[in-house]
Amino acid sequence: MTRTEATPPAASPRRFSVASWQVTLGVAMLVLGFLVAAQLQGQAPRVRYSTQERPPLVQTAEELQLAQDQLKAQILSLREQIAGAQVSAAGNDARVSQLNDALREARTSAGLLEMEGPGMVLQLGDSTLPVPPDRAPGDYLVSANDLRDLIGELWIAGAEAVSVNGERIGVATAMTDIGTTVLINSAYLQAPYRVSAIGPDEMYDRLTTSPSFLQFVEGRVSPFGLELGVARPESVAVAAYAGNINLVESRAVDSSAPR
Q1: Which of 148, 138, 141 has the alpha carbon at shortest distance from 52?
Q2: Does residue 131 lie in a domain region?
């Protein structure tokens, strides 16, 4: 009887396996890269006031710009003082509390906190009129210039805080027309635009009797059929500024130091 030897089975090719944590890490790094790129591309351009605008608006904008820069520097200085006090004098609760109060006051003045108080709400919407063949369709839409003019009139009338559709307005706020939308603080907003303003009781009378505001209504709102409404609720809420404060060249100066 002939003996037959069994042939060993052929070895299967070796498979390479990837650990699940490596896949998770790779996906996380890819998502992080997209987020960083989106953040860099989403920074809104800064809009500067032209010297061709009405002198009162230009002067008000320059004064607010200076005040905002000073407040930003003050906030950074107070943050450094708070951190130093917590490290070197952890038991000095009174000093830390005092610095926190000063920081809150500075943040309030800079628009970094949500505010509530008396005021008014204006709503500016696009026109519903048919566009004549000889006119540009954009003339019948609310533009960034329209919002700047209206907000400028509110500052002159005594407004202390202003927001548009929940976006806090500061002197560094950029407003740019993007198609049928307006870009404000890196947010794309569409009409109707709800402009909330906190200010004294006489702010309404100052605004509605201002010659420049009446000129805005007669020369821009009425001819093109833009929709403008005004309300005076018991209380007005203005959202906090949601952007970042980035100071590169500025530094805080001790107010007690000689100049």
Answers
A1: 148
A2: yes
Residue 146 is inside which H or E element, if any? helix 144-156
Grouping H, G, I as helix, E, B as strand and the rest as coil, residue 87 is helix
Q: Are 122 and 228 in contact (CB under 8 A)?
A: yes
For the chain, the domain total comes to: 2
CATH number of the structural domain spanning residue 169: 3.30.70.1880
Record the pTM: 0.60
Give the domain range for residue 215. Answer: 115-238
Task: For residues 38 and 130, give the distance between their C-alpha atoms in angstroms, rounded to a whole number.
Answer: 38
Compute mean pLDDT per 10 residues along the chain, 259 residues long, and list them. 48 49 48 48 45 60 73 78 69 72 74 89 97 94 96 96 93 87 93 97 96 96 96 93 68 61
- Give me the torsion for CA of 54, 123, 131, 137, rounded to 10°: 60
Single out the residue of 209, 232, 228, 205 nearest to residue 120, CA to CA.
232
- Do 135 and 193 share a domain, yes or no? yes
- Looking at the chain, the number of H-run helices and the number of E-run strands are 7, 10
